[in-house]
Design goal:
By secondary structure, the protein is of the alpha+beta class. The chain has eleven helices and 27 strands.
């Protein structure tokens, strides 16, 4: 793309400035012409002359105060030693392969640099002087194709024994290793590297080993990187592929992380306390992103293209295997999660949306109470808030109190004023449920089935028409001194009923649960059966209001109801 100045007298219209690349080419070619003369002139003074020529070229390029020694010079190679650029960059040796027959083009066929030591902060300031006045030596290419055209002329470069230090404040980070790069076929460029990163994080020394490859051509850009901690607590791998066309790109990438004992992550993010497991994330643009080989790479163009991609053109697949973590205030509502596995595809990232059939499983989720063997199938759909999704629950099952809690299909919207649904109860232990309700002196055996309709409004929980029924015969024992004293004035029949309830063998039993959003709740017990030790097993039909901590039962029901949405929120991109 070109622009024109409407002012016909503008000097830029008459004498445009030569591109910086041409200025650089002119100096490099000129330097090698002089070096070629020095090679032919004789051995005695050619090395000092070559060093002087290179220093002049570097000064012209804006790098003042460079010191170096030319150690060897021939028509096929030049070797430099003891190179220093300012106070922050030192190179033990640099050797370039030459082919003077390629003049007046670039005669350099290869470059090998050994023993690079630099302080990153100081080196960046030094290199900003490149080409003078603090400007970069080479203007970034306006397009990907332009960058590839320039990269074609770059010879293979190998860097050995690289050592970088970065310490802007406090303990620093050191990067060591090696890398090589160069043309890789027509119109392609590749980089290979093996690095070790060492530093102090939260008061502990850590080392990370990173190796991989990356390459770009006019058709595709690919990357394959692996990183792992020296102690083996984190092992990760990332692959990426960008398919390039003249005006668009399609992006695919996968990252896998295996957390064996990620204590370091717990320090960085408290909700990952004790995190472990395996996570795989795949990113894809189902429709091409409007950035291509010939797209001007200016900030407004890139920002607009990325915004369009995030709003509707990116799909994110998240797979989690055998993960676990604990949370204090984040994660799944302040819980500990064990054995978490998930397979989630986000069709859109902002706001998050999915198609039906996403799945999450966990062996245990423990907070105020413990749920086991969770299985959730769901979808993220549009909710009340524009950016916060609602959760459409297709199926949810969890083991609780020896039986099953389930949620009938419903929508839970965290941004809505209220949410409501029905908890299906199957084979739940009567004794565990009575203990949970805090009914003093009341215990029993048997299995309950039924449903608990629930409504949650902010922090208030309501239950209307909850009904649980025993699946078969069982026992009920009510040995409450408070109940005996309260009913002592009820006459002989009441006293007889209380005696029967001390060891009641029921044939039928139901619990009817009511709890208003504000105020106390109640449990109405209806049962039919007999006590073999009372009146020779005389049958009784008993209706009894039980008072206790019904709020506690309501809170557990609300926790089970809200658990699916809490688990999903803990895994969505923040």
């Amino acid at each position: 793309m070109t622009s024109h100045d409407d002012n016909a007298d503008s000097p830029s219209d008459i004498l445009p400035h030569p591109p910086r690349r041409r200025r650089w080419t002119r100096w490099v070619v000129g330097a090698f012409v002089v070096l070629a003369i020095a090679v032919a002139a004789g051995a005695y003074w050619r090395l000092p002359l070559a060093g002087a020529v290179l220093r002049v070229v570097l000064e012209r390029a804006g790098l003042d105060g460079v010191t170096l020694t030319v150690d060897a010079l021939s028509p096929s190679r030049i070797r430099l030693t003891d190179v220093r650029v300012g106070a922050d960059i030192a190179i033990a040796s640099a050797e370039a392969g030459l082919d003077l027959a390629r003049l007046p083009g670039n005669p350099v066929t290869s470059v090998v640099i050994d023993g690079v030591e630099a302080d990153v902060a100081g080196a960046m300031k030094t290199l900003q002087q490149f080409s003078g006045n603090g400007r970069p030596a080479v203007t970034p290419p306006p397009t990907i194709r332009g960058w590839l055209d320039r990269a074609e002329g770059i010879p293979p470069v190998t860097v050995k024994n690289l050592s970088l230090r970065y310490a802007p404040a406090g303990p620093g980070i050191a990067l060591t290793g090696s890398a090589e790069s160069g043309p890789n076929g027509a119109g392609a460029y590749a980089v290979r590297f093996a690095l070790r990163l060492a530093g102090e994080i939260q008061g502990e020394k850590r080392e990370v080993v990173v190796d991989g490859t990356a390459g770009v051509s006019e058709e595709v850009a690919i990357a394959d990187v692996r990183a792992k901690t020296e102690d083996g607590t984190v092992d990760g791998m990332a692959t990426g592929r960008i398919e390039l066309a003249s005006d668009n790109t399609t992006i695919r990438g996968t990252a896998r992380v295996d957390l064996r004992d990620a204590k370091i992550l717990a320090k960085l993010s408290p909700w990952l306390q004790g995190a472990a497991g395996r996570v795989e994330v795949t990113v894809q643009t189902p429709t091409p992103v409007a950035i291509g080989l010939d797209t001007p790479l200016d900030t407004p163009t890139l920002a607009a293209a990325l915004q369009r991609a995030v709003s509707g053109g990116v799909r994110l697949d998240v797979k989690i295997e055998d993960a676990s973590f604990g949370s204090g205030s984040q994660g799944a509502g302040g819980t500990t999660v064990q054995g978490l596995s998930a397979d989630i595809r986000l069709d859109r990232l902002s706001p998050p949306r999915t198609s039906p059939g996403q799945t999450i499983r966990a062996t245990q989720v423990a907070g105020g109470v413990t749920f086991e063997d969770l299985s959730l199938r769901f979808a993220l759909v549009e909710g009340v808030a524009p950016v916060l999704p609602a959760v459409r629950i297709e199926d949810f099952q969890a083991t609780f109190a020896g039986g099953q809690f389930g949620i009938a299909p419903t929508i839970i919207d965290p941004a809505a004023e209220s949410s409501e649904g029905t908890i299906a109860v199957k084979d739940v232990d009567l004794g565990a449920l009575l203990a949970l309700a805090g009914l003093e002196g009341v215990s029993g055996t048997g299995r309950l089935n039924g449903a608990i309709p629930i409504k949650v409004v902010k922090n208030a929980v309501g239950i209307a028409g909850g009904r649980l029924e025993a699946a078969g015969p069982g026992t009920l024992r009510i040995r409450s001194d408070a109940a005996k004293q309260a009913l002592a004035q009820g006459g002989e029949e009441v006293v007889l009923m209380l005696s029967a309830l001390e060891n009641f063998h029921y044939e039928m039993l139901t619990l009817e649960i009511e709890k208003k959003l504000t105020g106390e709740g109640r449990i109405l017990l209806r049962t039919r059966g007999q006590n073999p030790n009372v009146r020779d097993g005389q049958p009784f039909v008993i209706n009894l209001n039980l008072t206790g901590n019904v709020d506690r039962l309501a809170v557990v029901a609300a926790q089970a109801f809200q658990l699916p949405a809490a688990l999903i929120r803990s895994m969505l991109p923040k």
